[in-house]
Each structure stands twice: as structure tokens, then as C-alpha cells.
Design the sequence.
């Protein structure tokens, strides 16, 4: 009797299990995409706009009929700016929530923590803004399931050298940079290399540390070293602003060129007033000045939806969602491995941050935008190709 | 030649900032033999109070300077009462460690209240540029230079010529004997801290304006440099702080200007070590025999 009972129970369980399985497969009318970004902690300023932009993109896609006839559902987790949290969120998304792809994280550290998980469970993961060179590869081999939407830091050095030589027509550069960060060192090296390729000469290269606030000695030295017609500063606004201020005070009037680190609401104050911010150029992922209709639509929709103006981060996250949409459509079915193959083959995707294809390191090959400041205000944006 | 003279101006301008901070450092050490590692952070507090008085209360520069000095002096007194006074009778190392603790406390409390972000200082002081024979000097550099020299003379005057100065010097020699002679030692020490803190505050607000940035960790590196400047010139000796500050400013600038910025700190410390080997009590210090 007992045995029969046990057998019946097993059969009942099995059957109900089967129907449950069947039910989920049939009910999966939505396509789940995971979002694993910083919503609290010190990087929340990066993660939050990315979440808002991803939600906007999903809303637009769903309103337009979804992907493969299905609606997209965002499954949102907060990394809390913590590497362990990011890893466990990614695991949860890929094993329990059954997402087809993951967007995240917003910064390099948390993205690198989750990257092995994506490779293990074979679910594609795209970081909108993790710009460290080692996010998508370990230095020797590419991670097959990890991508990014932003260009990497050294790439800007290349673009800016092209810009200084071709667009500004400069031939003698001075390179200044912090010796304390890889960001600055890589940028300075690549800029110098490319500027030489373009036929220019680097007259002087000076390094300083992150602790420095007084650059007068360096600037005096550079002035005595010989003629130059452009200064490349590989650093963030904190020091770049001070350098620009002190250089203008020292009577240096040549243009300044710098990376996306220049973009800061404090740059005007740091540089000692808007008058010092003429003939200053910096590269960025996205500019509101673009005349592209897609960009203007995005800005208008984002502003009505969230009540604030979009940043480069929101634009990158927006592009990430649309890239996934394109990949899912190309794959033709909701299967992470097939979507990954489609993503890898993505060619000339027309995004709002540029036309995107992936190289063999899963870094996007795209144009950068160089913004010109006039009296501290973004006055013009030039698209510069690598 | 022109480059050399310009670098000389650059060096004197940084040097006067170090000198300004070193004055308070050396005075506190001279009177109570405490290496007040929190001095650099009092300078940071001064910069923040200056920032608030300029941006929130819209005070003009001179009023902002005075109110910042007064307010920072009060904070200095409070810190002395809470952190250092209970340790008056304990070892010098205990007081030194406490000073380091106070330094970290101040950095973190300011990060907590104001946030770790960098604030920019509005330009409340006119900055005119003078070009003399190709050498560029701006009025802010002159203000800092003149202020540090004026404060040095004022401090020297207070310590050497006034009644309270005499009381300070007596406390410096022997606290117990001073107390027996009717000197209120607690008052003197409190006043020493108040003056030291207000000097740091003056430096903070001036540097805040000069480099137009303020952040919670801004006091650490200059504080250390000022300490080195004080030791350089002979710690406890007021004109020594001045000479030490200018020497370090000039060495740094010339190393940056003719070598590389990355070596400047190394060279400064090598020269410090050499001076201390030859003259252990600093440039102006007198070698005193240890009493056994």
C-alpha cells in the first residue's frame, strides 16, 4: 500500500512538474533582459541614469511592438557599487531569472567581477560604460560573452591626436599627464604615438602626480623648451582645470585638447572662469549638440520621461538596449548563445553615440565626438573617426 | 635667465604657502612640544569655513578672512580641550598619536558633512597680472607672500615683546615653574592653539582662493610639507618656519623646472635628511645639550 502511495505521489509530482514546465515555456511571452547597475553607493551617479535610459528604450521598443512579437521585460538589480554583489546579481539573473542577456555594470570594477559569470553560463553581457581595457578580455584572450558600448580610454588618445593634427592643423604638441593613473599614462602614450604618425612632433612631455595643485614650474619649463601650438592634457577636470587656469595666467594661449575626463560641471570654476575656457576641446561619447534626428528625439523623450537632461551614460545605456534588440532580431530566437553570436557579428549598428561594430576584443569601433568650448560652454561638436 | 627668474617667482609663491602653514606648526611645537599633525587639517577646516562665509554668507574677502580665523581658533580651542588637555601629563608619543587621530577625524567629519567632492572657490580676490621684464607675477601671489611675511613678524612680536608672549616662552621652558610664578598654563596653551589654528585658517582661505579648489584631504600633503619646512628651519623657531617654507618651495620648483616633477619630493626629503645629519636642530636651531 505504502509503495503504491509513494508511486502515485511521484507520478502526480512528475506530471505537475511537467505541466509547470510546459506552462512557463508557453507563457514566456516576454523576453527578459537583466539590468545589473549601480543604483546605490558611490557609483550610483553612473548607474542611475543608465537605468532610466534603459527603461526608456524598453518602453519605446514595447510600444513599437516589441522584439520578435514579444514584449521586453527588464529585470533590475542593484550592484550597490560592490563587486561581490555584482557577481551574485549576475548569477541570479542568468540562472534563476532566465534572462537572454545582461546589461551592466556601469563601472569597470563591478563589470569585471561579473564577467566570469557571463562566460560560465554563456549569457551575453554588455557594459554601457566600463571603460577599463581589461573588461572584455584578460589581456591575452577575449571573454566570449562580454562586450561594451563605450570606447576604451586609450582610444580617445588616438582620436584626439587625429583631431589635433587634422582638424586643428597643429604640428607641435606638449603632452601633460598625471603619472598616478593608468588612464592618463595610456592616453598620453597613445596620443604621442598617433600625433607622430600624423607628422607632428611632441615638443615636451611632462608628468606630475595626482597630489599636485601647482603646475607653474612645469609650465614655465615647457614655455622655455621651445615653440608649440597645442597642449594635450591627459587627466580629469580636477587638475586639467587648474592647469588651464595656470597656463592662461602664464600667458599660454594655445588650444588645449583633452579626454572625456574634462567633462565636468566644475570645469569652469576650476579653470578660473569662463574666459579661460576658449579654444579648449575634449572628446566624449555623446553630445547634445548633434544634429542627428535620433539624438534629438532621444534627448526630448529622455527629458520628458525623467525630468533631467541625458548624459553620455544614459546615451550609452540607451544604445546598449537597442544593440540587444538588433542582436535578438538577427538571432531570430530568444537563446543567449545565438544572441551572443549575433552580437559578435553586429555591423555598423546606427546608435546615438556613433556607428558601432565590435572588434576582436569586443570593444566597439565607433567614432568619437570632440566638443569645443567657447567661454566655458559647449559650442560645437565634431565627429572624429579613428 | 628669464626662465630662471620666473621659476624663482614660482618657487617663492609656493614657498610662502608652506611658510604660512609652517608658522602655526612651529609655534605650537615651540610652546608645548606637541607635533600637531592635525595642523594641516585645521588649514583644510579654515578653507571650508572661508568657503562657507564667502558663498553662503556672501562676506567680502577681508571680513571672511577675519571671521574664518576667529571661528577656526574656536574649533582649535575645542580640539585642545577635548583631545589634548586630558593627555597633558602622558607621554609625548600619546599626544602625537592623538594628533594623528584628530587629523583623521577632521578629514572624515568634513567628508561626512560636506561630501568628498571638490568644491571650487569663487574668485573673491582680484587677480591682476603684472609683467616685469617678462616675469609674470599676479596679485594673489603677492597677497600670499606679503601675508605670510606680515604674520611672521606679528607672531614674532607677540611671542617676544608682549606679556602673553613672555608667559608662552616661560611655559615652553618649564610648565611647573611657570605655574609657580603665577602663569595660568592652561590659558597660555589654549591661546597658543587658538593662534596656531587661526594662522592655519588664514593659510587655508588664501590657498583656497589661489588654487580655487577645496577638498577634505587638501590638508594632508601641505601639512606634511609644512612640518618638514618647520623641521628644516629648526622646529619651534618662528623665522625658521619662514626660511624652511621658502627653501622647500624653491627646491621643489627648481627640481620640477630643471629635472622632473616626479623627483621633487624625493629631492626635498634627501636635502632634509642631509641638513638633519649636519645640523640636527635645523637651519636656525641651536644645539642644546640634553640634560641628564
Sequence:
Amino acid at each position: 500500500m505504502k509503495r503504491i502511495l509513494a508511486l502515485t505521489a511521484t507520478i502526480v509530482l512528475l506530471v505537475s512538474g511537467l505541466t509547470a514546465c510546459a506552462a512557463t515555456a508557453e507563457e514566456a511571452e516576454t523576453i527578459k533582459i537583466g539590468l545589473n547597475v549601480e543604483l546605490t553607493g558611490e557609483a550610483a551617479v553612473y548607474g542611475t541614469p543608465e537605468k532610466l535610459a534603459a527603461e526608456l528604450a524598453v518602453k519605446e521598443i514595447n510600444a513599437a511592438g516589441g522584439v520578435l512579437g514579444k514584449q521586453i521585460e527588464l529585470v533590475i538589480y542593484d550592484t550597490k557599487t560592490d563587486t561581490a554583489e555584482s557577481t551574485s546579481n549576475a548569477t541570479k539573473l542568468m540562472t534563476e531569472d532566465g534572462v537572454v542577456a545582461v546589461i551592466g555594470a556601469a563601472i569597470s570594477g563591478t563589470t569585471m567581477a561579473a564577467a566570469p559569470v557571463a562566460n560560465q553560463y554563456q549569457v551575453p553581457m554588455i557594459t554601457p560604460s566600463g571603460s577599463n581595457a581589461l573588461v572584455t578580455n584578460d589581456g591575452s584572450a577575449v571573454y566570449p560573452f562580454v562586450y561594451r558600448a563605450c570606447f576604451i580610454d586609450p582610444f580617445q588618445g588616438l582620436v584626439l591626436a587625429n583631431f589635433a593634427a587634422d582638424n586643428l592643423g597643429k604640428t607641435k604638441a606638449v603632452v601633460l599627464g598625471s603619472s598616478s593613473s593608468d588612464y592618463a599614462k595610456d592616453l598620453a602614450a597613445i596620443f604621442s604615438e598617433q600625433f607622430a604618425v600624423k607628422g607632428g612632433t611632441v615638443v615636451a612631455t611632462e608628468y606630475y602626480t595626482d597630489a599636485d595643485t601647482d603646475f607653474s614650474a612645469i609650465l614655465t619649463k615647457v614655455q622655455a623648451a621651445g615653440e608649440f601650438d597645442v597642449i594635450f592634457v591627459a587627466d580629469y577636470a580636477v587638475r586639467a582645470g587648474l592647469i588651464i587656469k595656470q597656463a592662461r595666467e602664464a600667458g599660454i594661449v594655445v588650444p588645449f585638447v583633452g579626454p572625456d575626463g574634462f567633462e565636468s560641471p566644475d570645469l569652469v570654476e576650476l579653470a578660473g572662469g569662463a574666459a579661460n575656457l576658449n579654444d579648449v576641446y575634449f572628446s566624449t561619447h555623446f553630445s547634445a549638440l548633434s544634429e542627428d534626428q535620433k539624438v534629438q528625439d532621444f534627448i526630448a523623450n529622455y527629458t520628458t520621461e525623467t525630468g533631467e537632461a541625458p548624459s553620455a551614460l544614459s546615451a550609452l545605456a540607451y544604445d546598449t538596449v537597442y544593440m540587444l534588440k538588433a542582436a535578438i532580431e538577427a538571432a531570430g530566437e530568444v537563446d543567449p548563445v545565438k544572441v551572443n553570436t549575433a552580437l559578435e557579428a553586429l555591423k555598423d549598428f546606427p546608435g546615438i553615440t556613433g556607428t558601432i561594430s565590435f572588434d576582436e576584443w569586443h570593444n566597439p569601433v565607433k567614432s568619437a565626438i570632440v566638443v569645443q568650448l567657447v567661454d566655458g560652454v559647449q559650442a560645437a561638436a565634431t565627429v572624429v573617426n579613428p | 635667465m628669464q626662465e630662471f627668474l620666473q621659476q624663482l617667482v614660482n618657487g617663492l609663491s609656493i614657498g610662502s604657502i608652506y611658510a604660512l602653514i609652517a608658522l602655526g606648526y612651529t609655534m605650537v611645537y615651540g610652546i608645548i612640544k606637541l607635533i600637531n599633525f592635525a595642523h594641516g587639517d585645521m588649514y583644510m577646516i579654515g578653507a571650508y569655513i572661508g568657503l562657507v562665509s564667502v558663498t553662503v554668507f556672501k562676506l567680502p574677502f577681508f571680513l571672511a578672512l577675519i571671521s574664518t580665523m576667529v571661528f577656526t581658533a574656536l574649533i582649535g580651542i575645542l580640539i585642545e580641550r577635548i583631545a589634548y588637555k586630558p593627555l597633558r601629563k602622558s607621554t609625548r608619543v600619546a599626544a602625537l598619536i592623538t594628533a594623528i587621530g584628530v587629523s583623521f577625524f577632521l578629514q572624515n567629519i568634513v567628508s561626512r558633512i560636506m561630501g568628498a567632492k571638490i568644491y571650487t572657490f569663487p574668485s573673491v580676490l582680484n587677480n591682476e597680472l603684472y609683467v616685469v621684464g617678462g616675469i609674470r607675477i599676479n596679485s594673489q601671489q603677492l597677497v600670499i607672500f606679503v601675508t605670510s611675511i606680515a604674520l611672521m613678524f606679528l607672531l614674532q612680536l607677540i611671542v617676544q615683546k608682549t606679556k602673553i608672549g613672555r608667559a608662552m616662552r616661560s611655559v615652553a621652558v618649564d610648565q611647573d615653574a611657570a605655574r609657580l610664578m603665577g602663569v595660568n598654563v592652561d590659558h597660555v596653551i589654549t591661546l597658543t592653539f587658538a593662534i596656531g589654528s587661526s594662522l592655519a585658517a588664514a593659510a587655508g582661505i588664501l590657498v583656497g582662493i589661489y588654487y580655487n579648489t577645496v577638498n577634505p584631504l587638501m590638508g594632508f600633503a601641505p601639512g606634511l610639507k609644512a612640518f618638514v619646512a618647520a623641521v628644516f628651519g629648526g622646529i619651534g623657531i618662528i623665522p625658521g618656519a619662514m626660511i624652511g617654507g621658502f627653501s622647500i618651495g624653491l627646491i621643489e620648483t627648481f627640481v620640477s623646472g630643471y629635472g622632473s616633477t616626479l623627483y621633487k619630493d624625493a629631492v626635498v626629503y634627501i636635502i632634509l635628511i642631509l641638513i638633519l645629519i649636519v645640523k640636527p636642530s635645523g637651519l636656525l636651531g641651536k644645539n642644546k645639550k640634553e640634560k641628564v
